[in-house]
Amino acid sequence: MTLSALKRTPLYDRHVALGGRMVDFGGWEMPQQYTSIRDEHLAVRKSAGLFDVSHMGRFEFGGEGAEDHLQRLLTNEVAALAPGHAIYSLMCNEKGGILDDLVVYREAKDRFLVVVNAANRDQDAAWMRSHLPPNATFDDRSSELCLLALQGPHASELLPDGSSDTEDIPYFGFHPGQVAGTRALISRTGYTGEDGFELFVDSASAIHVWDAILDHGKSAGVLPCGLGARDATRLEAALRLYGNDMDDTVNPYEAGLGWTVKLGKGEFVGREALDQVKAEGPRRTLIGLKTAPGDIPRHGAAVMAAGKRTGTVTSGTHSFFLGHPIALAMVEAASFRVGDKAAVEVRGREAAAEVVKLPFYRGSARSAVAPAKS
Amino acid sequence: MADRRYTKTHEWVTVDGKTVTVGITDFAQAQLGDVVFLELPSTGRKVGAGESFGVVESVKAASDLYSPVSGRINEVNEKLATKPELINSDPYGEGWILKLELEGDLPQDLLDESEYKKVTEAGSQ
């Protein structure tokens, strides 16, 4: 695929003007970095960073059947979600394999916004439409709305003038308001482990909001951030990346996301298979690895225990913040415990690794993994 | 300082008498992204033109480094051990990698600036 065949968000010209190095990400031409992944990564951990995540899919479900529809397609408990609250969930196939991970926002009793991964947008839309009951509606709002993420320990102090008060928005809560004098849905969610917001704004005002946040935050160290910083921060927070750490051959228990599966909520796609996995125990498990500086375990590298291959690295990078490489690996269940030594393939040789507790880093997010109970 | 010459594998050299300084190009560092580590040889080792002498690890990938010339390694940039980011910030200056004592003549296939530019333009699309 050539770059010209890729899709672009309404902020594309801004990315180019800011020096963004544009790469193909799930069929979208997005910035890998603007200045340096290191600087952008550290901005997110120490001040705040601004990401364009408009490549993600935004679907709206309405009608009296919307709740039931999502309840039947998703593993998590949607019915108990109060308006103004969001929840992280998985969507599985009948075999319990993960089709996508997503966030469900309940806007009203009969209205939900669902944000899905960019690379899965088309498949998800087809799957969700094919299961749609007659009393629910599906609306792809991806092109009308842009999604910006301002993430960092100081994010809440760094929204520009003309922005609503966010003090009373809980983690995984959201409300309609204003950012830089423009209508926005302000959500206290993110993918970095830090406090911060995801802002749904009309596509026509996206450039205005983007510029206002960067102008206002400049003196406090706010930087525009690309996919490189996004990957590093999500990995430090041990947030799974669909396509790397999980896909439809992985079930939620293997991915360490069993907490999103509510087997007791009633019928949903994959329930029977997942019931069995839970009863038998998962065969594989996702672990965290730490290696010496320079030994970066890459996606697909072998993980060994006592000379025997027991798994594969699913994500790995150098953590500029922690000062050493970190990786997630899918390994045979019970082959490792935290503190164990392991070996991992790096540049064709075996490098020493240590099994460490997840997440690698707990940021300022009010709850780094499980959403707060509403 | 003599003119800088380039390889198709994105190394550069400058020649001062018998001493050849080697680094990677600005195009290469930009493609690699933030460099986090270099695996470099010890001084005294002999390398042949086109031979791999080390590895550069960026956040994105590990890439082999190839010697543009044949010679004996006299010096390795020690600063890169603690500051690998010099490769990104100053690839033609403080981010130099090796100094070799040239053995024989410079290879014929080294590129000048305009020839190298054509390589990068062909490779970036």
Describe the structure.
The complex is a heterodimer of chains A (374) and B (125). Chain A is an alpha+beta fold and 374 residues long. Chain A is 18% helix and 33% strand. Chain A contains 7 helices and 19 strands. In chain A, helix 2 (37-46) crosses helix 6. Chain B is an alpha+beta fold and 125 residues long. The mean pLDDT of chain B is 92. Chain B has one domain: RNA polymerase II/Efflux pump adaptor protein, barrel-sandwich hybrid domain (OB fold (Dihydrolipoamide Acetyltransferase, E2P), Beta Barrel), CATH 2.40.50.100. Chain B has 4 helices and 9 strands; from the N terminus they run E-E-E-H-E-E-E-E-E-H-H-E-H. At the A-B interface, loops of A face strand 4 of B.
Q: How many domain regions of chain A? A: 3
> How many helices of chain A in DSSP terms?
7
User: Could you state the CATH homologous superfamily of the largest domain in chain A?
Assistant: Probable tRNA modification gtpase trme, domain 1
- Alpha carbon gyration radius of chain B: 13 Å
Largest interface: A-B, 18 and 15 residues
Q: What is the number of helices of chain B? A: 4
Rg of chain A: 20 Å
Helix content of chain A: 10-25%
Low-confidence stretches of chain B: none
Main beta-sheet strand count, sense and barrel state of chain B:
6 strands, antiparallel
Beta-strand percentage range of chain A: 25-35%
What structural keywords apply?
heterodimer; A: 374 residues; alpha+beta; Gyrase A, domain 2; Alpha-Beta Plaits; Elongation Factor Tu (Ef-tu), domain 3; 6-stranded antiparallel beta barrel; 19 strands; globular; B: 125 residues; OB fold (Dihydrolipoamide Acetyltransferase, E2P); 6-stranded antiparallel beta sheet; 3-stranded antiparallel beta sheet; 9 strands
Quick summary:
With 374 residues, chain A is of the alpha+beta class. Helix content of chain A is 18%, strand content 33%.
Blueprint of the fold:
The complex is a heterodimer of chains A (374) and B (125).
Chain A: H1 12-17, E1 22-25, E2 28-31, H2 37-46, E3 49-52, E4 57-62, H3 66-73, E5 85-92, E6 98-108, E7 111-116, H4 121-130, E8 137-140, E9 145-151, E10 174-179, E11 182-187, E12 196-202, H5 206-217, E13 223-224, H6 227-236, H7 271-280, E14 284-291, E15 302-305, E16 308-319, E17 324-332, E18 341-346, E19 349-356
Parallel strand pairs in A: 3-13
Antiparallel strand pairs in A: 1-2, 3-9, 4-7, 4-8, 5-6, 6-7, 9-12, 10-11, 11-12, 14-17, 14-19, 15-16, 15-18, 16-17, 18-19
Helix pairs in contact in A: 2-6
Chain B: E1 5-6, E2 11-16, E3 19-24, H1 26-32, E4 35-39, E5 46-47, E6 52-58, E7 62-66, E8 71-76, H2 79-82, H3 86-89, E9 98-102, H4 113-123
Antiparallel strand pairs in B: 1-2, 2-3, 3-9, 4-6, 5-8, 6-7, 8-9
